[in-house]
Amino acid sequence: MVRSDAAPAPGLRERKKAETREALRSAAARLFAQRGFAETTVAEIVEAAGVSPRTFFRYFDSKEDLLLPDLAASFDRLVRELERRPIEEPPLVALREAVLAAVANAPQTTLIALAQPFAGAEAVVTDRLVYAFVQLEGRLTRLLAQRLPPGPDADLRAAVIAMTAMSAMRAVVRTVRERRKAEEVPVGAFARLLPTAFAVLAETSADL
To answer: Is residue 101 within a helix (H) or strand (E), and if so which, with residue range?
Structure first.
């Protein structure tokens, strides 16, 4: 006979934790988009997610942590996608394909956060985005250096490619956020504009 008070299996426990975290992320993204960041309270987020305030603070330190809830995980996914690309691919092509694959599988909460200009939180979002992109540039530079022929300037070339690609991504983020201030822009606009941004990079490189 199975005891009713038996502890759940680790797999089930982890799934429940993931479900709770996702419920909080989704509720926050929805409320931020509807009401604005400044007007949304933690109490409203937990009510929408169906959890207690104590549960909220087991997962997040503050509502600011929910502005870009899955960004780190999405950037980790980008790195993994780049590691999977064929080594013979040109570095910028490999990075472009890795970015597109990562965004195609990114959680909707991340794309909503990137596309949404949150009133009252622009400075926080900008600071976190800048820091996150700088950190990612370093990781990508090290991976790209492994794809380049050895030479005295291989590290510089890798850094230029990584920073150029990240600049294209930042340009897409800025464009979508600026457009949303004036008009309704679908979440899918972020993923849709990325190929255009990389096409501009390719055209610019060809002209140099």
So the answer is: helix 91-104
121 within 8 A of 64, measured Cβ to Cβ: yes
Distance CA 55, CA 53 (A): 5
Amino acid at site 29: A
CA-CA distances (angstroms) from residue 25 to 14, 45, 46, 69? 16, 9, 10, 7
Domain shared by 23 and 37, yes or no:
yes
Q: Do both 82 and 135 map to the same domain?
A: yes
pLDDT at 109: 56
State the pTM of this model: 0.70
Q: How many whole angstroms separate alpha carbon 6 and alpha carbon 191? A: 45
What DSSP state is assigned to residue 119?
Answer: T
User: Tokens standing for 206?
Assistant: 């060809």
What is the b/e burial string over 30-48, where b = at least 16 CB atoms within 10 angstroms of the residue's CB? bbbbeeebeebebeebbeb
How far is Cα 80 from Cα 76, in angstroms, rounded to an integer?
Answer: 6
Distance (Å) of CA 206 to CA 11, 105, 109, 113, 133: 51, 30, 36, 33, 25
Kindly indicate the confidence band of residue 119, based on its pLDDT and cuts at 50, 70 and 90: low
Tell whether 90 and 168 lie within a shared domain: yes
Domain count, the chain: 2
Q: What is the radius of gyration, based on Cα positions, of the chain? A: 20
Domain span holding position 19: 10-66
Q: What pLDDT, on the 0 to 100 scale, is given for residue 208?
A: 44
